[in-house]
Design a protein that fits this description.
Layout: H1 17-25, H2 29-52, H3 65-78, E1 82-84, H4 88-93, E2 100-104, H5 112-124, H6 129-155, H7 158-170, H8 172-178, H9 184-210, H10 238-251, H11 257-278, H12 284-310, H13 313-317, H14 330-347, E3 369-372, E4 378-379, E5 382-389, H15 394-417, H16 423-435, H17 437-440, H18 456-471, H19 478-507, E6 510-512, H20 513-517
Antiparallel strand pairs: 1-2, 3-5, 4-5, 5-6
Length: 526
């Protein structure tokens, strides 16, 4: 009789416990198939539970929901944003929309995000707080899945992808912005979706260009080793079209989506140029910019523009929208409306107690208090308070900022040493370039810390990649890998505990006042 095989391979001088467990799980095709869908499914489920449970609480219009909830219902009812009368917020809580008039209201964000919010309201009724938040909760949960897929495509590692998706699933800013009817959570999903499509286009297109280096032989007129002067213009790029559509829809939620469209459009051109250089194309800069560049522009920006215009259909086909009658040509009228909106955004500098300039964001100095219970009930001998604060998990936030700086260092060192710098290092940095740097250029404008929700996917990507580096490559000495993997495991365990500690103040639970106070680690968090 043969003895049964051990559950794990024997520990030797080359493997750690985690590596043995991973190798054992992946040793069979069934185990590999299970891992390919189980981790993302569980992460998405976890994110959904944290975002959907008790979503209707508080049954109150929180913070800027006063704009987007009413605009969403107005779009559903009229096709454009109308004005609301006095007391509309209180009446809407009872499902009473009688304060809505047909007079046009001047609004400063495109309509798509509000149309998406309106879907939940149409299904549940205008007075359902669950209904007006359910769309952002679902899209916030799906953002976790998209980040997992981006990380897996970048690193080809399910472990790194699971860490990235898991960190986003339990992060406070991601949870809070998924449980409120604002536009930023929707914007985040669409930008990350566009980035996923851009990554898929990169993985499909770049190898085709690099393979040109193996095809330079065989031209009888110029000799076997004749250099290729120009490369092909690639039109068959469906993922680039998909990226344009996704980023166009992001721009149709908030104009800040245009930054992502521009930055990732340039990223496609730059990576295309570098791939042509590696393929030995002599005129690689002009080939990428002047030949492939216009084609990529049409493939990406054309669908984005079409998608953006489609989002304005309600305003275009009705007569009552703001500035709709300013010109007989509806597209000219829409252009004039956009000029008015641009003027508003440029001049927006009204003071706000929770305003936070972009230079403060990495330091997390002034998170936004989304909601505070109006009349906290007594709680035993202590006074209770119910709060929803947009503070992220501090361990994720600060470690993510540090990881981004580490990737930036690696990128600069790679340029100095002229060593290859792949998308694993560059893509999180490009994402932060698109979602953070533009806000540094508007120092006098009223902006808020919660805008950083769009940065969080790229911070957790950077953090997951940095944690893999910290854990050590398979070629590192055993003691190095053991120490690194144990440290990463401890960090992740403590991060989960910190999220559990903060969860009550992310979801508006009633807690003793002293318990709330110990969550305010910096003076500006109150």
């Amino acid at each position: 009789m043969t003895s049964p095989a051990p559950l794990l391979p024997p520990l030797d001088a080359r493997t750690t416990l985690w590596e043995r467990m991973r190798d054992r799980a992946m040793s069979s095709p069934a185990g590999a198939r299970l891992a390919s869908w189980l981790a993302p499914a569980l992460l998405t489920l976890l994110a959904a539970v944290l975002r959907l449970v008790n979503l209707a609480h508080p049954h109150d219009i929180m913070f800027d929901e006063t704009y987007y909830v009413k605009d969403a219902w107005s779009l559903w009812s009229l096709g454009y944003e109308g004005k609301w009368g006095e007391g509309a917020d209180a009446q809407l809580l009872d499902g009473d929309d009688s304060a809505l008039s047909t007079d046009a209201s001047f609004v400063v964000h495109p309509p798509l995000g509000k149309w998406l919010i309106a879907l939940g309201m149409a299904a549940m009724g205008p007075g359902s707080s669950f209904g007006w938040r359910v769309t952002t909760a679902i899209l916030g949960s799906l953002t976790v899945l998209v980040v997992y897929l981006i990380a897996r495509e970048l690193t080809r590692s399910r472990t790194v992808a699971t860490i990235a998706g898991g960190l986003l699933a339990i992060d406070g800013l991601g949870i809070v912005m998924s449980r409120i009817a604002l536009l930023d959570g929707i914007l985040t999903f669409l930008i990350t979706l566009g980035v996923l499509f851009a990554v898929l286009d990169h993985r499909r297109t770049i190898p085709r260009l690099e393979a040109l280096g193996d095809e330079r032989r065989g031209d009888p007129g110029e000799g076997d080793d004749a250099p290729r002067m120009i490369g092909p213009v690639l039109w068959a790029r469906p993922w680039l079209i998909a990226a344009g559509i996704a980023l166009g829809t992001a721009s149709a939620v908030k104009w800040s989506g245009l930054y992502a469209l521009a930055v990732f459009g340039l990223y496609a051109v730059v990576t295309d140029a570098l791939a042509r250089r590696r393929a030995g194309i002599v005129l690689w800069p002009t080939d990428a910019v002047l030949r492939q560049g216009p084609a990529s522009f049409l493939l990406m920006v054309g669908p984005a523009l079409a998608t953006y215009l489609v989002s304005w259909t309600g305003w275009l086909v009705t007569a009552g929208g703001y500035d709709r009658q300013s010109d007989p040509n509806p597209l000219v009228a829409l252009w004039k409306y956009h000029e008015s909106v641009l003027g508003f955004h440029v001049g927006l500098a009204s003071p706000h107690p929770y305003a936070s300039p972009a230079w403060q964001w990495p330091l997390l100095l002034r998170p936004t208090a989304i909601w505070v219970g109006d009349d906290p009930a007594p709680c035993g001998t202590d006074h209770c308070i119910a709060v929803i604060s947009s503070v992220p998990n501090p361990l994720i936030w600060y470690a993510g900022v540090a990881a981004a700086l580490y990737l930036l260092y690696r990128f600069v060192r790679g340029l100095v040493e002229r060593s290859p710098v792949g998308p694993v290092l560059t893509l999180p940095l490009v994402g932060l370039l698109a979602t953070y740097v533009p806000w540094l250029l508007v120092g006098n404008r009223t902006i808020f810390q919660f805008y950083t929700i769009v940065m969080v996917p790229f911070l957790v990507l950077a953090l997951a990649i940095a944690l893999r580096e910290f854990a050590g490559p398979r070629t590192a000495p055993l003691h190095r890998r053991q120490a690194g993997q144990r440290t990463v495991a401890v960090y992740l365990g403590v991060t989960v505990l910190v999220s559990a500690f903060f969860y009550p103040v992310w979801t508006g639970m009633s807690v003793p006042y002293p318990f709330w106070l110990i969550h305010n680690w910096l003076p500006g968090w109150i």
